[in-house]
Write a structure and sequence with these properties.
The complex is a heterodimer.
Chain A lengths: L4 E12 L2 E12 L3 E5 L6 H9 L6 E6 L2 E2 L5 H7 L1 E3 L12 H8 L8 H6 L5 H19 L14 H14 L4 E5 L7 H16 L4 E5 L3 H7 L2 E6 L2 E6 L1 H6 L1 H8 L2 H4 L1
Helix pairs in contact in A: 3-6, 5-6
Chain B lengths: L15 H4 L6 H20 L2 H26 L7 H18 L4 H23 L4 H21 L1 H4 L5 E2 L4 E2 L2 E2 L3 H23 L2 H11 L1 H6 L4 H27 L1 E2 L6 H14 L4 H27 L6 H25 L3 H14 L6
Antiparallel strand pairs in B: 1-4, 2-3
The chains are: A alpha/beta, B mainly alpha.
Chain lengths: 261, 357
């Protein structure tokens, strides 16, 4: 694993008034790898993801995507660079169809503005829609949601919505995919499906994935590398094997012998 | 081979273009075309009164669609829609009276002028949401109302402004039957434009901003840009409607451009269906026809023996005014998705008839 670094966080700190959500976290994400972020509740995992996607701006430190600083870029501009994410709590466009939801992901790739869009047949909007529809269908195919492509997103079951959200993020054509608990609240079968999709996206499409997940079995099986956060600090960083053997991680999750004593 | 003429039991599309069509079946396309042809023939059948009602429906339908694009589709509330309607009305009379711009051209130009004003209002508005936005747009309504009353160079001040009749290539299109075609042409163009807009990139961005602005941003949608764009397009529609009204009535007074009209536009999109293009027209039709229907009822009652009782007749005339409010309340309770939704249900019912259950 000596691939080049796609995302680098240097000394990231994030504070909300008195509360320090992140303290001097530094990390690297290498091109093509699947990195998991784990840690107890409130450890700052989602905060870190929000810093990367642009929801929060770190109070200290800098982020580099493809060697260029992105810390001050607005959220929308980061999507254009190829950073996509899904949310922990479902964040689909509830009144749109599944197809439209996914097409929104292609927003930054489409060229037609409102004038050509309104003229539809004349300005090439129709042609562009159809071109991109082909790619969207490939994503639909991968995630096996053909049967619901015309369904309104708000009417779908939880598991399907999670899948549509993944599809929408993939439609961005991301270089970096941030997944916030993609398997939360799913049964075993659904989890296996999602794991398969994530692996396929990572292996076949070459998308770098950063994932927050609580299911240790999934984390240990899928990840190339794992980062552990606790109280806003990075306490471990290594292969799943190393993490499983780390005494510090065990202490964070189970409490240390000293604390118990 | 009797079955060859029957429609297949499913709706099979074989191309992406067909999957994105406005008209899902050939029947619906034919119905729309026949509908437009029938409308074209209406001036031969209807009297001036009937035509004037249709003209009002068309004009308010255009204005309501503008508000629906902003409020229904993009989720940005506006209580200042009437002010932009008024700005378009005054703008068009100003352009045609002062500079001799042909009316046919003055109407879209007034639309563009108002779009600039709408963007100026929209820029600060893009930073606020919900109730705060409602108040900010209300402020815009009052500021513009005041401007109309004072700026004599633009609106004629308290006296109002006379509007020239509609002219196209030297032909005067005045009177109900001619003006009906003018409104119909504007209506069809603007409705087709909005329908297309909503099935392409920027229209989806509008709905994305409404449904979940956080994830819209993550999808690369610039929130400020799209909120301002929605304001711009919405005010263009309002202004064209206002200008059409001015050149139909022949006169614009600043007093007719009040908050009540803003509320009526709001009622139209609530009754018609938030975020629905055709719902805007249905809502406008409802709001124009309901008072007329009630008027007829009051009239009919006058001719009966109860017509001698002033309490009943006067009371009913008053109830007619209150009925608008009642209609909104009833729609909010029983059909919050508006007439457009009801129409979809009717279509869905007949689609499977007689096997629907």
């Amino acid at each position: 694993m000596s691939a080049k670094v796609l995302l680098e966080g240097r000394d990231i700190s994030l504070g909300f008034r008195g509360v320090k959500a992140l303290r001097h976290v530094s990390f690297e994400v290498r091109e093509g790898e699947l990195l998991s972020i784990i840690g107890p509740n409130g450890a700052g995992k989602t905060s870190l993801l929000n810093c990367i996607s642009g929801r929060y701006r770190p109070s200290e430190g800098e982020l580099f995507f493809d060697s260029r600083p992105i810390g001050s870029l607005p959220t929308a501009a980061r999507a254009r660079l190829g950073i996509a994410r899904t949310f922990q709590n479902l964040a689909l466009f509830a009144h749109m169809t599944v197809l439209d939801n996914i097409m929104v992901g292609r927003h930054h790739l489409l060229k037609t503005g409102f004038l050509r869009g309104g003229l539809y047949w004349l300005g090439g909007a129709q042609r562009e829609e159809i071109e991109h529809r082909r790619r969207v269908e490939e994503i639909i195919d991968l995630l096996e949601i053909e049967h619901i492509r015309h369904a309104v997103a708000g009417t779908l079951s939880y598991g399907l919505r999670k899948r549509v959200e993944l599809a929408r993020a993939l439609a961005i054509e991301p270089r970096l995919l941030l997944l916030d608990e993609p398997m939360a609240g799913m049964n075993l079968e659904e989890k296996e499906d999602i794991a398969r999709y994530i692996m396929e996206v990572n292996d076949e499409w070459g998308v770098t994935v950063v994932m927050i997940e609580h299911d240790m079995g999934v984390v240990m099986d899928l990840s190339d590398r794992v980062i552990v956060l606790n109280y806003g600090e990075k306490i471990a960083d290594g292969t799943p094997q190393e993490i499983a053997e780390s005494a510090e991680v065990r202490a964070a999750y189970l409490g240390s012998a000293d604390a118990a004593a | 081979m009797a079955l060859a003429t029957a429609r297949p039991c499913g709706d099979f599309r074989t191309s992406y273009a067909a999957d994105k069509t406005i008209f899902p079946t050939r029947g619906s396309l034919i119905a729309a075309l026949v509908g437009i042809l029938a409308l074209l023939a209406l001036p031969l059948v209807l009297d001036r009164y009937g035509l004037s009602l249709l003209i009002y429906i068309g004009i308010y339908g255009i204005g309501a669609l503008g508000l629906n694009l902003l409020t229904g589709c993009t989720g940005q509330i506006s209580l200042g829609h009437a002010a932009f309607f008024g700005f378009g009305a005054f703008g068009s009379t100003w352009l045609s009276n002062k500079f001799g711009v042909p009316v046919a051209l003055a109407i879209p130009l007034a639309g563009l002028m108002t779009t600039v004003v709408g963007i100026v209002v929209g820029l600060p508005a893009a930073r606020i949401k919900g109730l705060y936005l409602a108040i900010a747009t209300l402020a815009a309504q009052y500021i513009l109302e005041d401007f109309f009353a004072r700026a004599e160079w633009f609106s004629g001040g308290a006296a109002g402004a006379h509007a020239r009749p509609y002219e196209l290539f030297g032909f005067r299109l005045a009177g109900e039957s001619a003006y009906f075609y003018v409104v119909l042409a504007h209506l069809v163009v603007l409705y087709v434009f909005a329908t297309n807009l909503l099935r392409t990139r920027d229209g989806r961005a509008f709905v994305a901003v409404r449904d979940h602005y956080l994830s819209a941003e993550v999808m690369g949608i610039d929130l400020t840009r799209y909120k301002v764009l929605a304001f711009g397009i919405s005010t263009f529609y309002a202004a064209v409607a206002g200008a059409l009204m001015a050149h139909y009535v022949g006169f614009v007074s600043s007093e007719s451009i009040n908050i009540l009209l803003s509320i009526q536009f709001f009622a139209m999109i609530i009754i018609g269906g938030m975020g629905s293009v055709m719902g805007s027209l249905m809502g406008a039709a409802f709001m124009v026809l309901m008072p007329e229907g009630l008027e007829l009822a009051v009239h009919a009652l006058r001719s009966t023996s109860w017509g001698d009782i002033p309490q009943i007749v006067n009371g009913l005339a008053f109830a007619k005014e209150a009925a608008v409010g009642l209609a909104i309340v009833l729609f909010l309770i029983f059909e919050p998705q508006g007439l457009a939704h009801r129409w979809r249900l009717v279509k869905a019912y007949w689609k499977l008839y007689p096997f629907a259950h």
